[in-house]
Amino acid sequence: MLKPLGDRVVIETQNEEEKTVGGIVLANNAKEKPQTGKVLAVGDGRVLENGKTLSPSVNIGDKVLFDKYAGTSVDYDGKSYLILHDKDIVAVIE
Amino acid sequence: MLKPLGDRVVIETQNEEEKTVGGIVLANNAKEKPQTGKVLAVGDGRVLENGKTLSPSVNIGDKVLFDKYAGTSVDYDGKSYLILHDKDIVAVIE
Amino acid sequence: MLKPLGDRVVIETQNEEEKTVGGIVLANNAKEKPQTGKVLAVGDGRVLENGKTLSPSVNIGDKVLFDKYAGTSVDYDGKSYLILHDKDIVAVIE
Amino acid sequence: MLKPLGDRVVIETQNEEEKTVGGIVLANNAKEKPQTGKVLAVGDGRVLENGKTLSPSVNIGDKVLFDKYAGTSVDYDGKSYLILHDKDIVAVIE
Amino acid sequence: MLKPLGDRVVIETQNEEEKTVGGIVLANNAKEKPQTGKVLAVGDGRVLENGKTLSPSVNIGDKVLFDKYAGTSVDYDGKSYLILHDKDIVAVIE
Amino acid sequence: MLKPLGDRVVIETQNEEEKTVGGIVLANNAKEKPQTGKVLAVGDGRVLENGKTLSPSVNIGDKVLFDKYAGTSVDYDGKSYLILHDKDIVAVIE
Amino acid sequence: MLKPLGDRVVIETQNEEEKTVGGIVLANNAKEKPQTGKVLAVGDGRVLENGKTLSPSVNIGDKVLFDKYAGTSVDYDGKSYLILHDKDIVAVIE
């Protein structure tokens, strides 16, 4: 079990074969290449300069859209996970 | 349905054929190339260092002018959407 | 009608033929090339980290001096407008 | 005995032969190359701009995942240690 | 009349022939090339993040030493003016 | 006698011959090359944006580990000193 | 007379012939080349973001050690002065 630190989030990424999530086909522009996945774990959040902690804006189970080149990838029990910062998640797919 | 996070906004962009919105023809200078679109969804806003959340400055339905190279593009049900940060929206067309 | 967002300002720029405004001839150094224009619309202002909004320092109708390469240019009903940030306005010509 | 300063943490790194920790095989993307280790000592934490000290988010004994290129390596009594900043620790392996 | 905005200051620069002001001969090092002039107008000052305005540190009439490459030059009624930021003024010559 | 300013610290560095301090052999990675020494003098500390002064985290007499390329070296009475910032000290050797 | 602004300090630098001040011979590393001088004038100090002014950490008459490439040099009545920021002064020589 991976417990992400700070504003990090553990994502179960989609396979290459499934390029659509919830019917969404992704078109990338030159700057950002989005990818989709499911949130498996969230950290406690980012600490602001006034000492308060800001909770991540996603919850476990959310389907999310994020920048494909963001984060650190980890393989565990044959599955591929991604650990990325909350700010790199672009949108939740509802 | 895409729910943008933070200060992000989902925009329905204009087709290449329609280069004018509300009669405005866009002339780009070397630095920024503006484009127009309609706001479909807005995030909760940016969190300031004092912990308060600053609501985005546009509302659903607004016609907006933004930097063409800003944001992440997504195709959904044959339409083209753009997810960009509130600060990349230059003006509202009234 | 263009409503600029944040600390942005809509400027009606001068024609190339009119290189002087109020008798001022502009000499550019290597770093900044100033240009003159009239303020047509102002945004609500920049939001400070304490949550307060700082009003732009110019008013509608002001003749202003700004950096020629700043901002986004827009053509509307045959006129040329410029949308730039309040901080890029160098001086008001009184 | 090494006492790390500020938000630094002393890590006992894994040998090259043990590429898995807790069954996790690490796959690196182009940006970050994670590595695992055990926390031996933690500093007092980072001082925020309001003067408060923010304790590190890991404890002595934690198995952690961190960026392989982060930190300063030190050899002591034939073992290899790494001193890195708390923010470079990606996740705790539970 | 030019009214500088924010922490800007309008300077009446010295002619090339007058390389000394108050008996000071300027020697430039590789990093900064100072020049002298007289303050003609000052802005209201810089707005701090707490919303307070910080008045410029020079007054109208001050002889000042500044970085030659700083600011925006403007010609008006045959005279050469320079508009620069308060922080680019190195010293007052008394 | 050298009195370091701000968050600076004066260090008496080790000779090249003594590559170990307290039995520690230093192995450098590509990013940081640590070195050891003894603290001779400490400044008053760094001033935070709220006006409070943050005392340095080391004391006179501490054996410390620091980045070899940090700071300014000074020779005095045949000895070699290094003046570096408190943040460049990685750990205290106890 | 030069009155430095903000956190600036006017320094009377040493001649090339006098390479030692108070018996200190300076050895430069690759990053910073220190030089010595005497403080002739100090500014009012740096203004913090909370509006308070932080006095410079040196006084008139102090012998100081600073980075040789910092600041702006000025010749006045045949003497060489240097105007530099308080933060570029490394230590006071007592």
UniProtKB/TrEMBL annotation, chains A, B, C, D, E, F, G:
Key word Nucleus present: no
InterPro entries per the UniProt record, alphabetical: Chaperonin_GroES, Chaperonin_GroES_sf, Chaprnonin_Cpn10_CS, GroES-like_sf
Primary localization class, coarse: cytoplasm
Protein's cellular compartments: Cytoplasm
Keywords: Chaperone, Cytoplasm
Top-level taxon in the UniProt lineage: Bacteria
Cytoplasm among keywords: yes
Quaternary assembly: Heptamer of 7 subunits arranged in a ring. Interacts with the chaperonin GroEL.
Stated family: Belongs to the GroES chaperonin family.
PANTHER family, sorted: 10 KDA HEAT SHOCK PROTEIN, CO-CHAPERONIN GROES
Role: Together with the chaperonin GroEL, plays an essential role in assisting protein folding. The GroEL-GroES system forms a nano-cage that allows encapsulation of the non-native substrate proteins and provides a physical environment optimized to promote and accelerate protein folding. GroES binds to the apical surface of the GroEL ring, thereby capping the opening of the GroEL channel.
Annotated protein name in UniProt: Co-chaperonin GroES
